Recover the amino acids of this structure.
C-alpha cells in the first residue's frame, strides 16, 4: 500500500510570517538599530543622548559651575556632616538619596573638580533615564524600534529644561521617568526575571523612589503588580513599593503648608498649566507660549483644550485595548504630577488662575507631562498611519515638535562665578574642619546668583578630645534654641546680635547636631546675657478697647543704658504680622508702631503730645489692629528703672484674648528675649 506523503507546498505556509518580514526590509536607520542588538541599542542611544544634552548646555562641562542646591545644600552638608548624617535628611521635605550619593563622591575630589563631576554625572543619569524606552521591553507600548528611539531623542531635546539640565539637584525629574518605565517593563520573553535580576531591579527602583518625590504617583500600579504578578516580580515590586512608601511618609511628616487647598483652584490651574507649559511650550517653544499668553490667552486656552479633547477622544475610540490603557495611564500621570505641583506651590497656582504666564520658572514641574505628551503623539501616529514606512512615521513624529525643538534646544549658559578662585579656599577649609582646627567660614556665591551660596561655618576654637563641638554655633535640627559651645559648655543664645558681635553669621555658621550629643554637653550661662530685664506691665490684665500700659524695664548699669524697649501683643497667627507692636527708642525719644505686615515702622511720635486738635496734631499712628497715641504716652527714668507708658486704643478686628510681652536691649544690643508680663482681652466693639 502506497503512503501518501504530505504536500511540500504546506511548508512555506508555516514560514509565511518570516517571509513577509523578509520582504518588508526596514529603512537603513531602523536596520541599524536591529543590527546593533538589544544592549548596543541602549548603549548607543544613551551615548547619543549624552552628546545631545551636552550640546544643549555646552558650558556645563566646558565651564562647569555649581547650581543652587548642588552647592548650597548637598556639597555643603556633605563637607560638614558626611554622608551617614545626611543620607536620609529631607530637603526641603522629601528624600534625595541619589544627589546625596553624588555629593559624597564629589567631596572626595579637589573642590576645583567638583562642578565638573556633578554636571557630568547629572548628564549621564539624564541620558540613561531618557534612553530606557528604547529597550525591547517596551515594544508592547510602541512596537517600532525607530519610533521609540525618536521618542527618547525628543524627550531629551524638546522640553524647556534650563532649570533641570546638568545639575544633581533636579536629576529627580529625570529619575521619575526611570521609575515609571521600571513599573511598566514587559520582557519580550514574557517570563519573570530571575531572583537576582528582581533584586537588582528592586534595589534600583527603591533608590530612585527615595530620590524623587514624584515617584509616589506610581504607587497604585506597584500595589496592583504586587497582587497580580508572578513571584519574582513581587520581589522588585515590593522593594520599590517600600521605597515609595518611605518617600510618601517623609513628605507627609515634613511638609508644612497651612494654606487652605481649594480643589477647584487646583483643578483649574492644572488644566491651564497643561495648555501653557505642556502643549504650547513643546509645540511652539517657550517664547511663543509666552507671547500667546500675553495676547488673547483665554481664546487660545479654550481652543487648545477643545483640540486636545478631540484628539484624545479620537485616540480613545479608534485604538486597541493596549493603546487605550497607555492613554489612560499617561493621563493619570500627567494629572497627578501637575496636580501635586499646583497643590504644593500656591504662588504658581495663583499665577495660572489669573492667566498670567509665569515666565521661565518652575519648568521642572512640567517635564514629566511634556515627555508623556511626546509618547501620546507617537501612539497617535501609529494609529493614524499604521502602514507608513518607518522614515515617514519618524517625520510625522518630529513635525509637531519642530517648533519646540528649535526654540527650546539651546539653554542659556551659567553665569561666571569664578569657581577656581574659591576652590583652593574650600580645600583648605575642609582640611582644617576635618582635623577639628579653628577655621574661618567661607561664603562662596554660586549659580543662579541672588541668595545662592555655599556657606561653610566658622569654628572659633579648636576641638578637643572631650569637646569636639568646641567653638561652634550649634542647634538641634527643627528646634528654635541655639547655643555657642565655649569651654566645653553650651551657652544659650538669647539675642542674635550677640552672634554678630562674636564674628559669626546666624544662617551661615549654624551647625546642627544630634539632641543626645547636645544634652551631654554641660550647661553654661546664657551667652550675651546682661544684668537687665523687663520687670512688669501695669495693668497686667483687663477688658477694654483702650488701655494705658505702663512698662518697667530695669538695667543695673542705669536706666539710660537701654537702646530699645518694646511692648508686643501678637496677632491671630501668634507672629509679628497683624499684631499690635509698639516700641520706644531712648536715643531719639521717639515712639513707633509696626505696620500690619511687619515691613516698616509707623511714626515717629514724641511722648506726651497735645490732647487737642486733629489726629495728626494730637500725634497718633495706627494699623489694622490698634492705634498708638502720643498724648497719654509718657517716659521717665530713675536709677536703674526706665518706665514707659504706652497709650493704645484697640480696633474690633483685634478682638480676643491677647498676651502682653516685653523686650529690652542694652546699648551693646544684648536682648532680654520676649517675656510674658500680662494678658489683655480686647472687646469686639467700642465701649
Amino acid at each position: 500500500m502506497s503512503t501518501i506523503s504530505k504536500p511540500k507546498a504546506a511548508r512555506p505556509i508555516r514560514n509565511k510570517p518570516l517571509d513577509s518580514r523578509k520582504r518588508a526590509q526596514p529603512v537603513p536607520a531602523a536596520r541599524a538599530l536591529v543590527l546593533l542588538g538589544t544592549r548596543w541599542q541602549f548603549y548607543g542611544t544613551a551615548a547619543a543622548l549624552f552628546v545631545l544634552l551636552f550640546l544643549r548646555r555646552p558650558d556645563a562641562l566646558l565651564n562647569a559651575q555649581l547650581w543652587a542646591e548642588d552647592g548650597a545644600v548637598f556639597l555643603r552638608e556633605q563637607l560638614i556632616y558626611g554622608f551617614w548624617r545626611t543620607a536620609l535628611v529631607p530637603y526641603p521635605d522629601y528624600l534625595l538619596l541619589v544627589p546625596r550619593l553624588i555629593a559624597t563622591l564629589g567631596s572626595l575630589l579637589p573642590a576645583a573638580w567638583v562642578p565638573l563631576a556633578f554636571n557630568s554625572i547629572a548628564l549621564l543619569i539624564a541620558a540613561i533615564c531618557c534612553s530606557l524606552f528604547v529597550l525591547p521591553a517596551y515594544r508592547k507600548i510602541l512596537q517600532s524600534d525607530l519610533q521609540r528611539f525618536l521618542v527618547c531623542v525628543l524627550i531629551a531635546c524638546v522640553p524647556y529644561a534650563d532649570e533641570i539640565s546638568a545639575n544633581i539637584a533636579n536629576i529627580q525629574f529625570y529619575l521619575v521617568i526611570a521609575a515609571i518605565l521600571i513599573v511598566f517593563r514587559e520582557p519580550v520573553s514574557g517570563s519573570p526575571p530571575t531572583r537576582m535580576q528582581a533584586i537588582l531591579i528592586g534595589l534600583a527602583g527603591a533608590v530612585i523612589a527615595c530620590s524623587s518625590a514624584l515617584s509616589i504617583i506610581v504607587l497604585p500600579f506597584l500595589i496592583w503588580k504586587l497582587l497580580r504578578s508572578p513571584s519574582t516580580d513581587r520581589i522588585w515590586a515590593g522593594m520599590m513599593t517600600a521605597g515609595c512608601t518611605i518617600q510618601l511618609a517623609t513628605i507627609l511628616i515634613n511638609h508644612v503648608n497651612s494654606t487652605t487647598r481649594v480643589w477647584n483652584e487646583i483643578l483649574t490651574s492644572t488644566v491651564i498649566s497643561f495648555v501653557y507649559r505642556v502643549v504650547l511650550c513643546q509645540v511652539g517653544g517657550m517664547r511663543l507660549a509666552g507671547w500667546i499668553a500675553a495676547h488673547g490667552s483665554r481664546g487660545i486656552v479654550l481652543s487648545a483644550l477643545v483640540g486636545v479633547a478631540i484628539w484624545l477622544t479620537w485616540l480613545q475610540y479608534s485604538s486597541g485595548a493596549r493603546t487605550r490603557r497607555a492613554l489612560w495611564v499617561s493621563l493619570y500621570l500627567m494629572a497627578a504630577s501637575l496636580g501635586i505641583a499646583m497643590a504644593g506651590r500656591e504662588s504658581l497656582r495663583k499665577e495660572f488662575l489669573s492667566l498670567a504666564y509665569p515666565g521661565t520658572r518652575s519648568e521642572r514641574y512640567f517635564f514629566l507631562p511634556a515627555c508623556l505628551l511626546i509618547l501620546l503623539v507617537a501612539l497617535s501616529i501609529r494609529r493614524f498611519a499604521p502602514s507608513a514606512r518607518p522614515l515617514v512615521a519618524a517625520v510625522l513624529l518630529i513635525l509637531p515638535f519642530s517648533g519646540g525643538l528649535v526654540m527650546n534646544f539651546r539653554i542659556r549658559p551659567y553665569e561666571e562665578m569664578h569657581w577656581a578662585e574659591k576652590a583652593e579656599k574650600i580645600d583648605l577649609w575642609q582640611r582644617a574642619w576635618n582635623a577639628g582646627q579653628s577655621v574661618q567660614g567661607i561664603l562662596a556665591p554660586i549659580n543662579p546668583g541672588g541668595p545662592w551660596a555655599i556657606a561653610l561655618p566658622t569654628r572659633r576654637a579648636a576641638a578637643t578630645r572631650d569637646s569636639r563641638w568646641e567653638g561652634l554655633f550649634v542647634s538641634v535640627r527643627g528646634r528654635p534654641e541655639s547655643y555657642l559651645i565655649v569651654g566645653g559648655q553650651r551657652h544659650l543664645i538669647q539675642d542674635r546680635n550677640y552672634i554678630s558681635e562674636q564674628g559669626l553669621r546666624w544662617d551661615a555658621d549654624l551647625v546642627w547636631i544630634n539632641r543626645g550629643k547636645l544634652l551631654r554637653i554641660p550647661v553654661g550661662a546664657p551667652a550675651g546675657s546682661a544684668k537687665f530685664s523687663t520687670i512688669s506691665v501695669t495693668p497686667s490684665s483687663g477688658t477694654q478697647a483702650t488701655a494705658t500700659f505702663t512698662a518697667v524695664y530695669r538695667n543695673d548699669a542705669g536706666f539710660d543704658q537701654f537702646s530699645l524697649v518694646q511692648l508686643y501683643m501678637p496677632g491671630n497667627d501668634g507672629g509679628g504680622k497683624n499684631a499690635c507692636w509698639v516700641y520706644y527708642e531712648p536715643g531719639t525719644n521717639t515712639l513707633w508702631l509696626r505696620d500690619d505686615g511687619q515691613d516698616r515702622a509707623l511714626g515717629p511720635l514724641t511722648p506726651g503730645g497735645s490732647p487737642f486738635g486733629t489726629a495728626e496734631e494730637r500725634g497718633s499712628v495706627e494699623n489694622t489692629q490698634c492705634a498708638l497715641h502720643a498724648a497719654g504716652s509718657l517716659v521717665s527714668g530713675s536709677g536703674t528703672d526706665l518706665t514707659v507708658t504706652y497709650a493704645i486704643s484697640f480696633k474690633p478686628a483685634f478682638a480676643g484674648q491677647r498676651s502682653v510681652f516685653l523686650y529690652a536691649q542694652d546699648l551693646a544690643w544684648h536682648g532680654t528675649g520676649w517675656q510674658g508680663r500680662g494678658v489683655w482681652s480686647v472687646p469686639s466693639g467700642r465701649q
Summary: DSSP finds 24 helices and 18 strands in the chain. The first helix runs from residue 10 to 14. Confidence is low (pLDDT under 50) at residues 9-25. Residues 492 and 526 are 5 Å apart (CA to CA).
